């Protein structure tokens, strides 16, 4: 027991430092965060303390008010911090991939499975809802990327449903802050073993593509590919 106490004491400053860092980052995007948190705490505590005086138990209700005020403040802080984080990530390259990494257990994410010269990108997530292709970039350009990737998925894993989402604020698009919720609302149609089998097939495809003996540079002009398996066998 004595050995665990120093470890716990060392962890507390780390948590407090993380909370302070989160507060500073949130305050940059949400200037009123301090006033809002103070207001929530005071209102909750004041309500319970007033009820305590009315029923003749101000001490008990006051203690309960402190605990609930702390809980309410923590909830409000968490939500506003999340909102501020999404606001700062909005429009940044790779923001969708960061969200996909935190969707939850049961999902396997592969970032940047398709990309064009304009850096529009498509990410892939596999879970019990099937395959979800998430695109970020110019809406008009990513539709071509999505169509090509969806066609490839249907050819490789035809028995698995493929969903496609475009991250953005326009019509028919999904806001970054709603991406996780949207994915979790998709109907679950695959079992655990089916998800594993799908990941294995996609992983095998990736390994196959990465092991193809392709030249690193452009092919010299006038060079012809050999007809046989070995150019020396003629």
From TrEMBL:
It comes from the Bacteria. It holds the Pfam family DUF4191. Residues 211-234 have a biased composition (Low complexity). The keyword Transmembrane applies. Keywords: Membrane, Transmembrane, Transmembrane helix. InterPro entries: DUF4191. Residues 208-234 are annotated as: Disordered. The chain crosses the membrane at residues 33-53, 59-78. This is DUF4191 domain-containing protein. It comes from Streptomyces lancefieldiae.
């Amino acid at each position: 027991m004595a050995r665990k106490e120093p470890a716990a004491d060392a962890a507390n400053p780390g948590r407090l430092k993380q909370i302070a860092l989160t507060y500073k980052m949130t305050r940059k995007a949400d200037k009123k965060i301090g006033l809002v948190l103070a207001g929530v705490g005071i209102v909750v505590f004041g309500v319970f303390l007033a009820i305590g005086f009315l029923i003749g138990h101000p001490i008990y209700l006051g203690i309960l008010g402190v605990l609930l005020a702390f809980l309410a403040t923590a909830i409000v802080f968490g939500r506003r911090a999340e909102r501020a984080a999404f606001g700062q990530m909005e429009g940044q390259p790779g923001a969708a991939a960061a969200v996909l990494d935190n969707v939850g257990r049961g999902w396997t994410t592969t970032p940047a499975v398709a990309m064009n010269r304009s850096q529009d990108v498509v990410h892939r997530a596999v879970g019990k809802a099937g395959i979800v292709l998430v695109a970020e970039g110019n809406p008009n350009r990513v539709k071509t990327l999505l169509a090509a990737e969806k066609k490839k998925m249907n050819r490789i894993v035809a028995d698995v449903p493929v969903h496609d989402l475009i991250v953005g604020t326009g019509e028919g698009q999904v806001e970054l802050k709603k991406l996780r919720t949207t994915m979790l609302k998709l109907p679950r149609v695959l079992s655990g073993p089916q998800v594993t089998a799908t990941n294995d097939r996609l992983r095998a495809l990736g390994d196959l593509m990465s092991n193809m003996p392709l030249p690193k540079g452009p092919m010299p002009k006038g060079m012809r590919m050999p007809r046989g398996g070995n150019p020396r066998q003629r």
